[in-house]
Every structure is written in C-alpha cells, then in structure tokens.
Amino acid sequence: MPRHSSRARARLTLLAALSSLIACLPPLAAATEQPSSSSRDITGLWEADSSHGHPEALVRIEGYHGHYTGTVVRLLKSGTDPDKRCSECSGPRHNQPIVGMEIIWNLEDGNEAGHYRNGKILDPDSGKIYDFKATVSPDGQTLSGRGFIGLSLLGKTQTWQRRDPEMLHHNDNGNKGP
After folding, report:
1. Statement: residue 25 has pLDDT above 80
2. Partner of 171 at 20 to 30 A CA spacing, among 2, 15, 23, 94?
C-alpha cells in the first residue's frame, strides 16, 4: 500500500471536499434558463383592462391550496362612480357594490407553471358569467385571461398588468390617501 506524504493527503482531502461542494450546487444553466414557478404566481394585484384596452379596475387575486379568487378593490375608469353597483347581475350580486365583489372564483392550478383553469369570471357591466382560464407570463408581469362559454375558441382574451400593492395607498391623482 503506497504511503502518501501529509501534503499529498491534505490535497486529496481538499479535492474531495471541493468535489462534494460542487456536486451540491444546482446547475447554473438550469437556474438561469427557467423562470421560477413563483414568478408565474397569479396571486397579487392586477390592473384589469376593458375590451377597449383602457384600465377598468384593480383586481386582487388570492389563493389557497391551488384555488384562486379575484376581488375588485378599486375602479379606475375615469368618471366612474366609486360606489357603482352591479345592476345587471342576478341573484345575490344584484345591485351589490362592484368594489369588494368577487368576480373570479373556482380558478385552479393548471398542468404547467403559470397556467390556471376551470374558473369562472363575472363581467359586472353585463352581469354575465363566463368560464375562465388564465396564463401568467414567464416574467410574472402580464396575465392573459380568457373568458368563454363552452369552448375557449369562442371567447375573448384580455391582458392585465401586475401592479404594486402600494398603488392602493394612493388616490386617483397619485397622492397618498384613501
């Protein structure tokens, strides 16, 4: 059996330790190429656009164990009464304030990160309820939501933008306040 000098043993020990450390590190390519699933999380504050591309409302989407709901927290359309009610809604939503109303429900995680399915969405202007699915962009800043009846081919897609929750602490003029 060959005898190693103390210097050679120290080098072998150091080499073994470095090899173990490198083996524990995640591959750099995988870390830079794939967005994290948390960046594609649907929860947060979203600026909902109308069918004409104008900001209509801020919607907060919250989730619990893979199921999500969306609630209107502020109306944005210029000239809109902040106490506007859902006059076209039926059932328990009829004439209820739109701010505070849950307009997305039953939305659940899809098969891939950033994809959500099997939800429902209410259009407070018409009172109509549609099937709903959504996809969050890889950078997590854009939500493409599709409302449809039956087949998703027969629907309409809206693009929403993620907003900073701090926006809720500013009035319509951008100043601090309610």
Report:
1. no
2. 94
